[in-house]
Amino acid sequence: MDILTDLNTAFEVQEGQPELAFLPIGATEQHSRHLPLATDTLLGERLSAHILAAVDRTGTALLLRTLPISSSEENTGFVGTVSFTPLTMRGIVRDAWDSLSRSGVRWLVVTAWHGGNFIVKPVVRELNQEMERCGVIYLNPWEHAPEAAYDGFASGFEVHCGDVETSLMLALHPETVRDDRRDNPVAFEAIYQDMFSMKTLSGGEGHAGHPTQATAEKGRALIRAVVEGSARYLERILCMADQHEQY
Ligand SMILES: [Zn+2]
Questions:
Q1: Minimal CB count within 10 Å: which of 96, 137, 181, 224?
Q2: CB 48, CB 22: distance < 8 Å
């Protein structure tokens, strides 16, 4: 797809007639001792354009700037984490869609670079049901890489600041990765975060997993898989939305 951004003027966007808007959601939250608070936002800023550019479809997309704060309840308890409550996120998605749809945009892709925004999924259903057609599309890019893409990492998909996320940052923003990387092989499953904070689950370290095993090369391979998988998924959904006029 062709891409317009907020560096274009309103008149340029009007002339480009984007059929789709893309809202990446980042976070401002603790990422242990070795990654910055903006990690998820930086990933969104770098990778969202790659996904849109890889979507094989005639048409124009308006790539919005990555939202730098979202719902990070599980990472509170550290200085620097800023969290919107889930209902605030509901309001943000609804308001973004209201203004975009009024200006003629047909679809909004809400892209969760930070995994804590669980409420976004039911809000997408709520909006599509309300308007009786597919208008808002949920994309969690990490879900669209094949499972095998995580095979080379220390323990598969390490949720927060482990081998996976540190490798991604070494590939994209190596200057932000601190030398103080400590492995923290605690018993950890992402689902525990519904009941306990990351601070509690990680023994105060802020992460679980093996950041010392991270490499830029592993990060680059995963990025290719995530970008490809997400682009194919969007092509599929947009094709379905062309076919089904109703919800
Ligand atoms: Zn993160």
A1: 224
A2: yes
Residue written as token pair 């990778």: 47
CATH homologous superfamily of 2-243 equals Creatininase (3.40.50.10310)
CA distance 49 to 27: 18
Q: Are 117 and 25 in contact (CB under 8 A)?
A: yes
How far apart are the CA of 15 and the centre of ligand 1, in A?
36
- Residue 223: pLDDT over 80: yes
φ, ψ of residue 112 to 5 degrees: the values are -90, 90
Residue 163's closest CA among 202, 218, 225, 226? 218
Q: Which residue has the tokens 């308006």?
A: 62
Q: How many A from CA of 161 to the centre of ligand 1?
A: 6
Average pLDDT over residues 101-111: 96
Domain boundaries, the chain: 2-243
Gap from CA of 156 to ligand 1 centroid (Å): 16
User: pTM for this structure?
Assistant: 0.96
Ligand 1 centroid to residue 54 C-alpha, Å? 23
Res 14 pLDDT > 80: yes
Is the predicted pLDDT of residue 157 greater than 80, yes or no? no
Q: Which two tokens stand for residue 198?
A: 């990351």
